[in-house]
Structure formats: structure tokens, C-alpha cells
Amino acid sequence: MSVAYTWGTEEAERRLPFPCDRYVAQAEAPYFRGITVRARPATLFRWLCQMRVAPYSYDWIDNCGRRSSRTLTPGLEHLAVGQSVMRIFTLVDFAKERHLTLRIKHGTGAGSLFGDLAITYLIVPEASERCRLLVKIVTRYPRGLTGALMRWGLPWGDLVMMRRQLLNFKALAEAMP
Q1: pLDDT tens digits for 50-88?
Q2: Engineering a disulfide at 19: which of 50, 74, 90, 101 sits with its beta carbon 3.0 to 4.6 angstroms away?
Q3: Domain holding 45: CATH number?
Q4: What total number of domains does the chain contain?
């Protein structure tokens, strides 16, 4: 498989169960991303909760030029299914200090562009101060020309954006005392 589909992950990690698989019927493509973070799962999870208000990727593209906060915002760790995440996703499932699962909002421009898409950010503890952050994205592309373009461009475009996001979360979590 191409790096656009498997960046930073190993085959055994790609075989793990991910909650996002339950949310897109007849998914056409899975993408995996992974990074090792030298921080406690609770610290990393707390940073993932920050996605409720910012994307933490390339802010000049994803956040209208506003910088994603470099400090934790009190209260964002209080999750509930149905909350908006990064403006284009809905929180559909979560387990504290273990995973966040998001689904693209239907009936929006993002849903029309990307099709039906779900993402799980899964934290896998490795040691007391180290964990893996694994991400799986499943999608069913839209039909027609848009779908053909997404099949070609989404794996690479997402790799660029999510790589930056994961590196940001790694740096922020590792900088916490």
C-alpha cells in the first residue's frame, strides 16, 4: 500500500478494531496515520478534545488563518455525542483516554465534497509515559466527477494535513509537565 494510505502505521496496527468502521456502510477506502507520543494517554486525549474548536493542522488553510490554541481550553474535555468538531464533523463516539470518533456532517459542503467519511483517533498505550496515536479514516466517495477527484486527491491531501495535525498534537502533549 502507498504511504498515502498507511503513513506511520504498521500492519498489526491497521488490523486493530476502530469504531469508525461502524459508521460508513460500504466504505471504499481506509487511510491510516500513526505517531508515537511520549506522554500519558490522558494528556494526549485532552489535546484531542481541543479539536472541538480548532483543527491543529495548517491553520492558514483549515482555520481561516487563526492559530489553534497552544494552551488547553477548560471544559473542552466534557464530551457528548452530537458535539461539533472542527466545524465539519460531529462527535459520534468516544471513550475517555481511548478514542474519539467523528463523522462528516451530512448536508454540508464538506459532506458533498468528501462523501460519507468517519475518523477514529485511537490512543494505544505502550508504556506509562508513551503511547501511539493511530488514526483510521473510512470513506465512501461521492458519485460522479467529485468522487473521481476525491479518490485521487483525498489520500494525499489528507496525508499532508493530518501529518501536520498529529505532529502538532505530539509536540503539545510532550510539552506538558
Answers
A1: 999 988 887 666 656 677 788 899 999 999 999 999 889
A2: 101
A3: 3.30.530.20
A4: 1
Nearest to 74 by CA among 109, 46, 101, 113: 46
Question: Based on C-alpha coordinates, what's the Rg of the chain?
Answer: 15
Give the H/E segment covering residue 116.
Answer: strand 116-127
Domain that holds residue 82: 3-174
* Nearest residue to 49 via CA among 21, 9, 80: 80
Whether pTM exceeds 0.85: yes
Provide the mean pLDDT of the chain.
91
Contact 9, 34 (CB under 8 A): yes
Is 33 within 8 Å of 162 (Cβ atoms)?
yes
One-letter amino acid at 70 equals: R
Dist CA 61 CA 132 (whole Å): 26
Given this model, what pLDDT does residue 150 score?
Answer: 86
Helix (H, G, I), strand (E, B) or coil at 138: strand
- Cβ neighbours of 79 (radius 10 Å): 18
